[in-house]
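**User:**
My hope is that you can spare some time for a protein that puzzles me. This is the protein in question:
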Amino acid sequence: MTHRKLSFIALPALLALGLAGCEGASGGEMMSAFAGETGDGGFDDAGMDDEGMDADAGDADAGGDGDGDGDGDDDTQAGGDDSTCAELQVDVQPVAPTVILLLDQSGSMTADFGDDNRWDAMYETLQDPDFGLVKSLEGKVRFGLALFTSDNGYANGNTCPILTEVEASLNNFDAIDQVFSAASPGNDTPTGDSLIAVAEK
């Protein structure tokens, strides 16, 4: 690129020398006038003007707006500041979770648990009308119930697991309590089969 610039500059320089002989000026004076001294608005051999700016550089950024940020828009003008972030308003609505209470109804739930047995302690924790989990959250959580047990598995064509269920819903305390309070421990504990059966529904 430098050679092209120098070649471009050299041709007018030779013409200037030729004219110098006709005008009576010396070649050195004409070259000095062409090359451009301080304040005469000329260019030196490196393609720089008197203030040290590259004559071919143009704008400092790829967009050609001269503000140097490369975005092509003139941020120096009113309203041209592109540093302002976009605003976004999102309306988020709560979604009630669904919780299925999958509870062991096997014979082992008759074992002691403090002053109660396991079955009664579980019932009080979930269904106490003042402090129970279901009552306190029934307006925010879709509670459902699935009591599980079996009677010797699949022996003699039995159903396994045996599920006693209440469909999940908000404000479901009364429906769950009606089924749960009437139930009592059974026989076996088919936990794995019960998990699969409820999950597939």
Remarks:
- The two ends are 76 Å apart (CA to CA).
- Residues 1-43 have pLDDT under 50 and may be disordered.
- Residues 63 and 71 are 6 Å apart (CA to CA).
